[in-house]
Each structure stands twice: as structure tokens, then as C-alpha cells.
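Pilot study result, target chain (321 residues):
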Amino acid sequence: MAGQHTMMAQQQYWSDLKERGSQWGPAAFAFLYRMFGRRACLIVLGPVIAFFYVSGRVQRRASRDYLRRIWRLQGRPGQPGHWQSLRHFFAFGSAMLDKLASWIGDIDREAVTDLDGPVMAGVRADPQGALILSAHVGNVEIVRAIAARHQKRRVHVIIHTKGAENFNRLIQKFAPSSSVRLIPAAEIGVGTAMFLSAAIERGEWVVIMGDRTPVHGSGRTLSVPFLGAPAHFPLGPFLLMHALKCKTYLLLCYKQDGRYRVRFSRFGEGTAPMASDRQAVLQAHVQRYAAALEEILRDAPFQWFNFYEYWAPQPDRERAG
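Predicted structure:
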């Protein structure tokens, strides 16, 4: 039980840390970016990231744990140290600037590789909307922003922080033509599910992350092998996929060699399983999602931004029924 409480407390700590920064950080950096550009933001961001690295013992330890697992999986000699973990933190800071740049309009289609594959072309041509699963890898916001600007599709993004309205106001301020709306995950109920279903019928996209367990310990999870050990993934995104009964895609966008690369694939067929098959189908979905995420992280290990002990014990909440 001690391990369970520790993990929940650490997830809460990371969430609170992001919430404190979200009150002033995005707006301040948006202004700085607009006035002086990316280089000035990187200069300011450097000491900020260094401070959070030194003071964030929980996040630093989680980063080292994750990187050790990647090192073992890749067969690298030795162990990752402070330099590799600090690089992980700076990759996160750089991704935050790229997220901002994508909404302002400074990153466009030409900066993203593999954006126009056959699966993406098919979903763009489909008049009906879709549910898009993603992860805290790289910068999926780039693809969302490009879709919103070039296709004029409305995009609803389900996020796991309380600052959705703050971010919505920021998007409207710096990108008034954006058709993106952020929805807090905590607010998803019957009414929100009906709203999202109607949105998909209108041809809109719903985006949700599949790699963030509930911060407050509520909600159901399911354990599957991930980076060499069992890890708990949230069932919420996959239950939503069954509830909406819509086409579902997996979208992962990560940075490699200075460019963003997109992997976009069909994930679900828009049908709900029989009650007797439900648990097995959910298990298969979560396992496939974890395997796709692991494949990306083998190629781009510094691009996963989950800074808590992902493999720590959790309460047994695996039953989906």
C-alpha cells in the first residue's frame, strides 16, 4: 500500500507543478516568442529547465528510471546519468516551444515528415470525424494545429490538467482563427460523451492521450508489458472509443534529427465488442497501444514526457465491467 500512495502522490506533485506554471508560463513565453523569436525563448528557458531539474527530485528520479529501461532495451553499455536526464528535461522544454510555435503558425506542413501518407489522406477525405489516440511523445500539437489551419476541421482535445480554460483563452489570443477546443478529462460524463459523439458526426476530430493514468487515483487502469516490465495504462480512452463507436486512429509525432515525424495508423473499426469479449478486447487494445509507443521510444528515447514513476504499483482497478 505504501507504494500505491507514493505513486499517487508523485503524480499529483507533477500535475500541481504543471498547474502552477500554466498560470503564467505559456502567456509569458508566447509574448516573448512573438517579440523576440525562438532563440530568445531558449535562452530564457535554459535556466528555468535547469532550476526544475535541480529542484524536481521526483521528476528527475522518474526520468532516470525511464531512461535506464530504455538503455537496457537498446542494449546500451553503462547507465544514463545526470547529463542524459537533463537532456530529457531540455527536450521537454524544446517541445513546449514547438507547441507554441505551431499554434502561432511558425511551424507548418513542410517541417513535418510523413504527414501525407495514405492513411492520413483517407481520414482527411472522410466527411465523418474520428477519435484520435495519441501520447505524451514529441509534439502532437503540431499535427493538430496544421489540421485546424489547413483543413478547417474543429479539433477537440481532451487534456489531463485543470487549466483548459486558460489554454483556450491563450489559443484564442495568439491564434484567433484556431478551431481547437481543450476539454478537461475530469469533466467527461454522459453529457460530454454525447457532445463528442455529435461532434464526430459533424466531421470533427476528438484527440485523447492514452498514456496518462488518472492523477487522483480514480478511474480504471490495465497492466500490460511496457519497456520490459508491467505498466498501468488508463482504460478511459479505450472505453471512450467503444462508447463513441467511431473510427479510431493512432497518431504519434516525435522529433528526430531536427525534424518532426508522424506515424498515423488505423486503430479501431468503430464497433463496440460483445459484453463477453469486452475484457479481452480492451486488453488487446491497450497492449497494441503500448507496443506502438515502445517502438517509437526505441528510436527517440528522449521524446517521452511522462515524469513520474510509471511502473510503480497501483491499486487493482483492472476490471472494466
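One observation from the pilot: The beta strands are 112-113, 130-134, 155-159, 180-184, 205-209, 221-226, 229-234, 247-256, 259-269. A full batch analysis is planned for the follow-on phase.
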